[in-house]
């Protein structure tokens, strides 16, 4: 009577525990499952807090420099009628764009989030976006392992609790949180209804197929850099933006075609499921798969945390270095002019 508090996983496990007279064992398994799931979720969410805060602070600092500091130097350069190098002209053009279009820093991310959320309301758009996320280097691997760990542990817990396999697969599909895995478990359930063992449809549907929406996202985000360049005022910027957009679209299409047939269910999982079915230890094998993927998620997350910090330092160092060099080259020319 309280579906908002207790999902289908809770209800079906408790139903199986009451029917089998092992409610205490079932509740213990359910508690362990929820603890592991929450621990993994906190680990992933905690890893994202640091880079998000650093990016927000970096954007705020760079925006302040563009709005408050660069215009002061521009006025000084104009007073002395200095010839400006290309880097300084580009910096001033970026400063004008930031000053006039600062609201786009908020509208573009919010618009993208709203667009993706609305698109994910439809099954076709949800599947395309989730496939796109699975194909992103490093991030896609983390999403894949996280989904695999969660769904295999859910399936193992349900099977060990005596829930029928088809009902267990339906619950896994509803709790997967990823359109591709939802599609996978639907096809696996259809295969089992036709009399196939679990490993057969799992292996047959382990690879993604062509999806137009996934290709659209690769083209869109590939062209996004060029679209941003086009809003910067200056001669040649629209042409440069079009060139960047074209190159980005081509690169995005190539990446998608290279990753289109990528497996999002490893052959090791299929083989372990096959062995588990043959030996009657399917739940044990699924628990082993879940433990393995949990460990891989922790390792990948720790590696990302170690990699993000130097990448952020390089990004900030490059941005600040570009600003300093662009402003000091005319200053050097001014000092030479005044000394003579």
Topology:
Blueprint: H1 8-20, H2 23-79, H3 86-100, H4 104-119, H5 123-135, H6 139-160, H7 165-175, H8 179-193, H9 199-204, H10 212-230, H11 237-259, H12 267-279, H13 282-339
Helix pairs in contact: 1-2, 2-3, 2-6, 2-13, 3-13, 5-6, 5-10, 6-7, 6-13, 7-8, 10-11, 12-13
Task: Explain what this protein looks like in three dimensions.
The protein is mainly alpha-helical. The protein contains 13 helices and no strands. The radius of gyration is 27 Å and the shape is elongated. The model has no long low-confidence stretch (mean pLDDT 83).
Low-pLDDT windows of residues: none
The average pLDDT is: 83
Number of E strands: 0
What profile does the largest beta sheet have? none
Distance between the termini: 87 Å
Shape: elongated
> Please, how many helices?
13
Q: If you compute it from the alpha carbons, what radius of gyration comes out, rounded to the nearest whole angstrom?
A: 27 Å
